[in-house]
From TrEMBL:
The keyword Magnesium does not apply. Keywords: Glycosyltransferase, Transferase. SUPFAM superfamilies: Galactose mutarotase-like, Six-hairpin glycosidases. This is Amylo-alpha-1,6-glucosidase. The lineage of its organism: Bacteria, Bacillati, Bacillota, Bacilli, Bacillales. It comes from Paenibacillus haidiansis. Residues 318-716 form the Glycosyl hydrolase 94 catalytic domain. Gene3D superfamilies: 1.50.10.10, Glycoside hydrolase, family 65, N-terminal domain (2.70.98.40), Maltose phosphorylase, domain 3 (2.60.420.10). InterPro entries: 6-hairpin_glycosidase_sf, 6hp_glycosidase-like_sf, Gal_mutarotase_sf_dom, GH65_N, GH94_catalytic, GH94_Enzymes, GH94N_CBAP, Glyco_hydrolase_94_b-supersand. It comes from the Bacteria. Residues 74-288 form the Glycosyl hydrolase 94 supersandwich domain.
Amino acid sequence: MIRATADQEYYELTSPTLLPKASGFLWNEKMMIHMNCRGYAVAQFMQPEPAKYSHAPNLEAKTFMQPEQPYYAHHPGRFVYVKDEESGEIFSAPYEPVRVPADDYTFAVGKSDILWTVKCKGIQIEMRLTLPKAEAMELWAVKVKNLSGERRKLSIYPYFTVGYMSWMNQSGEYHEELQGIVCSSITPYQKYQEYDKIKDFNDKTFLLADRKPDAWEVNQEAFEGEGGITSPSAIGQEELAKGDALYETPAAVLQYRVDLNPGAEEAYRFLFGAANNEGQIAQIRSDYFLNKNASGEDGFVLAGREYDQYIREGRGCIEIATPDPDLDNFVNHWLPRQMYYHGQTNRLSTDPQTRNFLQDHMGMSYIKPQLAREAFLIALSQQKSNGAMPDGIILHKDAELKYINQVPHTDHCVWLPICLSTYLDETNDYSLLEEKVPYADQAEAETVYEHIHKAMQWLAGDRDERGLNYINQGDWCDPMNMVGYKGKGVSGWLTIATAYAFQVWADICDNSGRPEAAQDYRAAAEETNEAVNRYLWDGDWYARGITDDNVVFGISKDREGRIFINPQGWSLLSGAADEEKKEKLLRAVTEQLETPYGVEKLAPSYTSMREDVGRVTQKHPGSAENGAVYNHAAAFYIYGLYAVGERDNAYRLLRKMLPGPSLDDIEQRGQLPIFIPNYYRGAYRQFPRTAGRSSHLFNTGTVPWVYRCLIDGLFGVQGTKEGIRVSPQLPGHWNEAAVTREFRGATLHVDIRRDAAASQTEVYAEGELLPDGVLRDVQPGKTYRVQVKLPGGA
Ligand code: CEZ
């Protein structure tokens, strides 16, 4: 039903109905496409804000990418209708819109392409989607093969939805000279000042074919007729009517009539995307279809290869072999890809939330540290001279702070040392701290060190008399917007996170020759932890915060929202929790928050508005921040578990981030294990029917934290100032594992085994014992053989 291919290049699904929302995604420098197994697609390109060339059938609300998006009959999609001209029977590939069950169906998601092979009524349709590296365009290859013993007369109809382009102006027609369909529109606007922006938009949608079609239709209503999308009337005719759309909803449909002998095959290629004008489209046609290089390859072939190369650059820095092959596949092939996507696209936003921008580039530190470095400098150049970080980072001259970035949050400074520490662990590039950067409100540049010092001072100052950090209208949790809007409420999590940030910063100060500052920050962390323990410990776990009206919440007295995961995990990181508190809170988390799908963000989920907490309580119980298994928060917790050596607890929860391995689990989650979604539904104890269901949203800060869990925790191959510390934390039921670690230009082959003779972890490099487990003086270009003996062997 689902399986990885032997070469691990693809994940395959063999039914369009088992996991109807299973999907894959591709992206390039301009766009992203989220392709579902049944043929539905959501594609967006940047100009500079996200825009569409294949629209919904009605006016779409413009917003950021949402979880659990529904699909419906006229959802944008890419389909091929197939008609047997003799019997009149039709079906469609990959599955929608006709929904005829295939004899054989495979949806294969790769790193740089997505393909389907569908066999139905003796005909095989293959569809393959890839992208070019830098243009807002899809490259489609479609093959039709006669599998039956008889000669077949067929019509095939590639159907690319265009949808409701604009209420001001929309049309479409076939262009003989372009051999394709061009649909035109004007992005609707009302203020004359906007004219300047929209006049250069790529408001045209084109479909170009490498082979001349026999007929076409550009008018969606005319195509569907009374038969509707599942059985379009136009397909009943011998030939499509060659119609156009004049302020009518366009569609891009072509017809090819083919006569296929048994075993014969025909191949077609299409380009579908956005453009500004016909001249540009003509250029695209000659670049991709007409001009060939010396080896006879055209732009279409070259673009596919170049794109594959582009995606492959996003390799991670560990390659693992463990007793868990599904984990290996995910970590070696898919996890770095998802991280790379975040670092490269900033989630298709021109003003990423500051914490997202920093964490996404924390992930980039493992792939292209130079880009992470640049990102940190950009972020710091938008800091205020009082140390405050803005709510979003502006990445384009025309961008402005939108949506959630207009709501004041207080946590952004916390992420600076935390994300930077990963970059420093990977690169040892402490010169970054001496780089000079201006402020948003001050041209005079100061060093990165000064900037972060000011950010830490800002956190230390933005507190009440108890020493607890104000929350204002949100912290990490965006919708926790009414705890402190009156100016008094505090965030328990943020206070704990501040203590941790102080410690991480203290280490960085030490490593960059600033022992006095380090001492001050350690003392500040300790004081902060004391305040946390004084005001927020509830007896068995930490409270989430204290409202404007001085009500402590996230405590045993609460009927809903009794316990939140974030303060628990971060207290393990900050050191607020001593041994006794640790034992208690671990138990509370297991008992109240753990589910078969991971740990929930809070429980019980709120079922009605709590006006002193905010709109998080209005989200559907078990969805998103209201008690889902919110993987970002779960990853923090797991990272905390590794920090205190809770290897079995940590691994169990880490594994729950991936669908599978049982088919039941995969069915319940509804997703292929090729990305970690931002959440799985929670409220397991309230709504078991929906618990576990994937949000299918692959935008999430989870992934760099999972990578850190692997590098710093599970496999223990974390960079340090002197070199690399080898200290694996394999779960008790693993007897061995191997890791190849690319590190500062060197390659380490780390072989980890349990050994009955070892009473504690022993690390050998090239046969020599490393007393503290740290391999020093790592030379670029060199390969090291590292052996780890773990106690506990049979
Ligand atoms: O956005 C994420 C943010 O991108 O939610 C996280 C937050 O830390 C990330 O920075 C936790 O709140 O506003 C809302 O209610 C949304 O639910 C966002 O909070 C959420 C979206 O799921 C992102 O698509």
